[in-house]
């Protein structure tokens, strides 16, 4: 009886909370409630940390080079498309890069932003394949806590962003992330083509710098908003979440930079594997 009452109260609280959601995303897959994505992410964590490593224990690693080439360059193409859509949806056509609020109208521009926000959210599920490729190839050292946390938390938190605030200042880090992914997955795609293409990868040493710049820009962009007297952004909680996420990874990348380039020492294993992928990705 007590459990039934608790469930009823939880349902009422959920109904009260969800009524403020953006109705424009109602027809998009996975947007009905956070439960389906929670199940997917939970299955992903169980799959890559327990089930597949156990299955692969006495088996040879899979040779997935061709599949990974297709996957990496597919992500490049998808990321390029999202960069274009984010720019055309407002970042190159009206946003100030300061206190940009969400446009909840049904204008073509506003609906275009809603669509690319959902596409970015969905891309986070596609990127779960990164980890699955690791475990199928028995690269279990790459499946660190940091790696799994990053791939799990991004789609889960972005559900709330798309559900309540698809647009505005909260999408700046998504635009940057898509730009960085164009560069990163191009690198991984060339790696997957084999040693003959490694001579074109002289820019590997700049990969950390590019990712570091990304988190600096995210942190500064959100940080400036806390200094404004009045920013009418509709969901301030997202500002804190984005800033915390950007700052956390900024610290991790600065730590990486210090050990790898200032002291020239071998990185702690969780940093080495958690931040950068293996060369033969």
TrEMBL record:
Which GO biological-process labels does this protein carry? fatty acid elongation, monounsaturated fatty acid; fatty acid elongation, polyunsaturated fatty acid; fatty acid elongation, saturated fatty acid; long-chain fatty-acyl-CoA biosynthetic process; sphingolipid biosynthetic process; unsaturated fatty acid biosynthetic process; very long-chain fatty acid biosynthetic process
Q: Name one GO cellular component term.
A: endoplasmic reticulum membrane
Q: Where in the cell is it found?
A: Endoplasmic reticulum membrane; Membrane
Sorted UniProt keywords? Endoplasmic reticulum, Fatty acid biosynthesis, Fatty acid metabolism, Lipid biosynthesis, Lipid metabolism, Membrane, Transferase, Transmembrane, Transmembrane helix
- Protein's UniProt keywords contain Transferase: yes
Q: What class of enzyme is it?
A: transferase
Q: What is its main location?
A: endoplasmic reticulum
Domain remarks in the Swiss-Prot or TrEMBL record: The C-terminal di-lysine motif may confer endoplasmic reticulum localization.
> Protein name, please?
Elongation of very long chain fatty acids protein 7
Q: Give the source species.
A: Sphenodon punctatus (Tuatara)
